[in-house]
Amino acid sequence: MNGAVSTTIIVAGLALAGYALLMTALNKPMGYPLLAAVGVLEILLLVEVGIIVDKLADGGHPAQLPTLIGYLCATPLIPVAAAFWGMVDRSRWGPAVIAAAGIVAAVLMVRLHQIWPAIRV
Amino acid sequence: MSEPTATPEPTASPEPGTSQPDSTRTGPGRLLVAIYALFALAATARAGVQIGTKFGHAPVAYLLSAFAGVVYIVATVTLAIGSPAARRIAVLSCSVELAGVLAVGTWSIADPASFPDATVWSGYGSGYGFVPLVLPVFGLLWLRHWARRAKTGERP
User: Fold this and answer.
1) What is the pLDDT of residue A33?
2) Which residues of A touch B21 (CB under 8 A)?
3) Nearest to B30 among A27, A93, A104 (CB)
């Protein structure tokens, strides 16, 4: 079922980016609905990390283990950093950073799949 | 007497959204610094892993990736600082970056044998959605905007 989580993250990341870009276009700072959406993405990413760690614990051997571990550490930090900037920058550019984070989350899922095809997208 | 609730709240900036950011790291600069930070991390970490695990496989590509990572780190830090001196260094690093992505992009297409493994700048950054090609252009435009503001004697 790991493929479903990756796909959900891609859809959620792009949806978040669309929502955040709308806020940027409307010249609005980050509000609670956008912050909640970032929180949902964060939870999904943590679930994905958990699934991959579980696969590694089960004896999975990706070709590029150090790279994979790097991705596992860096990925959950992205929504946190974006939410932080959304709080600090009370202009339209807070949501713009969050839009970038949503797109990056989606791209990272594809990259993870390339690093270790056992993680199905 | 009109209803006070009917009139919009007067705010500090008369036109919302046109309030000037006060540093290279605020406003649109925040997005720029965020993307630069991401590329600094991605390029440096990738080069570190590649040099540490399989340097002999494609030394030129890995050293170029490491160099790109350092340039991204310098650009991130100097854009985030935003002082006049930092902006001069940022202009230099964005220029090196633009020259690098154009040179390495052309080199990687003309002589693919030199690049058995990709760098951030291979194929003009095609592996990264051409963001490495676009990023220095926006960086330089943003820095030029600030250089002009400094010249016309607005805020530093």
Assistant:
1) 96
2) 91, 93
3) A93
pLDDT in tens, A57-81: 988 888 888 889 989 999 999 999 9
How far, in Å, are A33, B11, B43, B101, B132 from residue B71 at the CA level?
37, 40, 10, 11, 12
Q: In this structure, are residues B61 and B127 in contact, taking their beta carbons and an 8 Å threshold? A: no
The CA distance from B91 to B75, in Å, is: 8
Nearest CA in chain A to B20: A91
ipTM, 2 dp: 0.86
Beta-carbon contacts of residue B21 (< 8 Å; ≥ 6 apart): A91, A93, B27, B28, B29
Alpha carbons A95 and B3: distance in angstroms, whole number: 33
Q: Please list the pLDDT of chain A residue by residue as tens digits (121 residues).
A: 458 999 999 999 999 999 999 999 999 999 999 999 999 999 999 999 999 999 899 888 888 888 899 899 999 999 999 999 999 988 999 999 999 999 999 999 998 888 888 876 5
Q: Residue type at B133?
A: L
**In this complex, is the C-beta atom of A7 within 8 Å of any C-beta atom belonging to chain B?**
no
A102 touches chain B (CB under 8 A): no
Question: How many residues are recorded in chain A?
Answer: 121
Q: Where are the domains of chain B?
A: 34-151
